[in-house]
Amino acid sequence: MLSLISAVAENGAIGYENKLLYWLPNDLKRFKALTTGHTIIMGRRTFESLPKGALPNRRNVVLSKNAHFIAPDIEVYASLNEALASCSEGEKVFIIGGASVYREALPMADRLCLTIVHDTPAHADAFFPWLNPLDWEATNEERHVTDERHAFAYTFVDFERKG
Predict the structure, then answer these.
(1) What is the pTM (predicted TM-score) of this model?
(2) For residues 76 and 88, is the Cβ–Cβ distance under 8 A?
């Protein structure tokens, strides 16, 4: 099962200068709940943006063309195909970024776990790939309004690939 997980602005924006655009505690809780105990695959720059390095209680896989790139508690592969080949049948795998890894993985994905942030940021340089609505069906939607901890309204939406 290959899933892409991301917080995405209404215009598809996901990042700026190698940082997340939004700080939504409930989105971070959801991310942790969905990915803990499973494999996460990310690009090197996404890994380098993590404040404490490898995320605990997950198999951390980093994609890098640099054969000498190493960091504690990660596995490094030169390509997404190599990383996916290292996964066992039935293993739940989540692609967590960045934009180029999302683009490459989207045609192979079974599921999308998106947080749609109801905002259009002033600055963004990384975008989630366009989704063809003929390929995806929303299976779960959970709307949330702004509150003292969330400056933006957002919706958790899970999609399954059609057919």
Answers:
(1) 0.96
(2) no
